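W.,

You were right to be curious about this one. When I first looked at the sequence I had no strong expectations either way, so I just let the prediction run and decided to look at it fresh. Below is the sequence, 719 residues in total, followed by the output.
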Amino acid sequence: MTVYLLSIGLISILGQVILLRELNVSFYGVELIYLFALGIWLFWTAVGVVAGRRMALPSRQSPAVLFILFGMILFLDVAFIRSSRLIFGGVPGAYLDFFQQLLVATLSILPVGLLSGLLFQQTAGLYVDSGRTLAAAYAVESAGGLIGGLFSTLLIILDTQNLFAALICSIVSFATPLLAAGKSLGTFLRRTAIVLLAMFAGLIFNASPLHDISTRWNHPNLLDSSDSPYGRITVTRMFDQISVFENDALSFETEGTDAEYFCHLVMLQHPHPRKVLILGGGMEGIIGEALKYGPDHIDYVEINPVMTKLVMKHLPEAIRQSLQSPEVRIIYADPRRYLTNSGTYDLILVGMPEPSSGQANRFYTQEFFKQCAAKLKSGGLLGFKLQTAENLWTGPLIGRNASIYHALRSVFPAVLFLPGTTNIVTASFAPLPDTPDIMTGRLQHLQLETRLISAPYIRYLFTNDRFAAVKNLLHEKNDLLNSDIRPVCYQYALIIWLSKFFPRATLFDFSSIMEKTLLRYLPVCFLMVLPVLFLVSRFLPGLRRKILVAAAGFAGIALETILLLYFQLKYGVIYRDIGLLLMSFMAGLALGALAVDKLMARFADHRLGTRRCGIILVAGSCCLCAITALLIRNSLPAGLWLTGLLLTATGFIVSGIFAYASLYEIDDQRAIISPLYAADLIGGCLGSVLVSLIFIPLAGMDTTMWGMLLLSVYAFLLL
């Protein structure tokens, strides 16, 4: 059964990564759907665990059947997600209906989630029947998850096509019964596994054609496509226009005027930019427009090397020549990490995506603006763009833009918003033009060749009613500023996205809602109810164990999420590092369950000794939460080793508490498999959604961690 448990951990983690990446692409990288899908996976895994309890006692053949089903369904799920727009009649490049998106996420994850839960319940049952404990089964499965995390990380680093990764996962699933059961496997099952193994091995050699065919379902004019650590990049051609998509969302088009609009409206505000830094977006033509000003040097920082390598060969000659100009240097790095050790510049152009995700939001925070300010020469200028409505700013749009505006104003004394469907935002320590005269004069002096930007157009931007209205809105809106540890802008972005499907969502305003009397006292009510619930559960041993495990799962996911986000904020998205960090957490899970299993066995005849084990684990959770909160509050550096150590400790405590709950005054190990494992998964599910979407944006990372400390303190009542 050890091989089975290791494989369950491996295919569960790898399958989870594969499906979540597919859903991330299919729904344009919107993290709301991504987090929903993660919650769905944990929920249906819990349902599978509970359902397995009601099934007949497992036989040696049961896991083999489930492994074969898992391998087949995973591949079919990938095909289903890719064809979802065709199935529901969607238009390539357009959103499906909100409920259709939820339906696709649910239907694709439900079968593999159920199978994952059933696999663990059935296999763990056989494992404990052999005289082992549930804690030992949990440790072995976690070790398999560590291998799965390592495997998935390697596949991402190597820019492996997601379809290829799905085939690999299916092959591992088919091969497991053959390796674990050998000749004891029934003839029919053995032959079925061998046939499927051979079929999928053959498909591997045709993975690239299959990827192209399935990509054309959504992009009929496909030129090229590739998966990267940052998402799927797709290039299409319609006549002379090249369109580039990131996670199926349009990134840029070569025949448009967006690059010209952004570049000139920023650069005309500077008298003579000699040294220019461009952070992202250079492939769409910004560099070519910037070269018209005759700068001495342009540094272009691209976070995703695959973007340049894949797209470069399809770009128009003019854009390709600008990227190869001797004045241009292309640097592959995370923009924030590059700024740490960069030189100074006259002009910094930020072409990063909209702040619609946690990753993108870090380029619109107070801390990022401080980094940019430190790298600007005297009279230097920072510029970026924000997509908005042209004539109507709803409450969430005002809130989002105001949070960015106030973050800018906390760093720069001069901030200018030029309104339109795309807002051009500039900031400087020097005065910025508040009339069109300076910019129109420079435009005429330079005699620039442009298609859109002209003197009359600039005068229109400064003198139309929107310019004054936007200025007043931003000054009047007294909103929280957007920061690293409290990304309020991200929460507004999620509401803006929801308003595409539910227009009334635009009426939702956090700042006004939090002023309501009920919500003002809601945290107090929560703090009063939670210890009462924990105290009552002390008289119900079964419920006490479940709540203890669920609370540990909740706090563990909260700690993991915050530590990864904090590492990302400080050091950028370096997938090799993040892969190692995730494996650190899985290693902690395996070590914690194994260590507590051994320790509890040593004190099996000493009730006080086993109880002390639980007290030490909960106390460790309190200390870990406090250390993390202080780390974030003081903005201390948390490099790879420190973050990895904290994640290992987190995993150790979570699995240790699980092991403690499964062993303390428990004789029948089989009876607790389903309730405890399901409680662990449900706690993780709630933690993933609530912490990412509500707690961090509204309360901040540090406050959330103090809340987890309080939860850990209350957990003493459950021991």
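Here's what jumped out at me. The chain is about 65% helix and 10% strand. And, maybe more interesting for your project: Residues 514-520 have pLDDT under 50 and may be disordered.

Coffee later to discuss?

I.
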